[in-house]
Amino acid sequence: xxxxxxxxxxxxxxxxxxxxxxxxxxxxxxxxxxxxxxxxxxxxxxxxxxxxxxxxxxxxxxxxxxxxxxxxxxxxxxxxxxxxxxxxxxxxxxxxxxxxxxxxxxxxxxxxxxxxxxxxxxxxxxxxxxxxxxxxxxxxxxxxxxx
Length: 147
Fold this sequence. Notes:
The protein has two domains: 1-44, no CATH class; 59-147. Helices cover 73% and strands 0% of the residues. It has helices spanning 4-14, 16-23, 25-38, 46-80, 89-108, 116-135. The radius of gyration is 23 Å and the shape is elongated. The termini are far apart. Residues 1-10 have low confidence and may be disordered.
């Protein structure tokens, strides 16, 4: 007797693209793109493809988080060490660059927009710690929550 589960495993095992995913990710990517272009849907590994598409979305969110952390850290340094603004023009450049990149990232990924409040609240603690470490100011100087 063959169960539905064993049939699915047999079908998956017959797909050559499934084995590539585990052994040669680069070739799997090229092969998967080729299979999609050819409309060979049955030859695809749907679970691996879904996993990689989710991963692409997560990487965009991680970029948003990273850019906000860097931006907020430099804004904190800018606000709480005003005497160093002249000697460290790179802070200003970094603030402008991160803002510019955030605008582009959100323009190209409008689905990230609802994530902004959470990303800012969650990322502030890390940005604050980095600012404390780089400025050598007391932690009490920096607000515990994002101003």
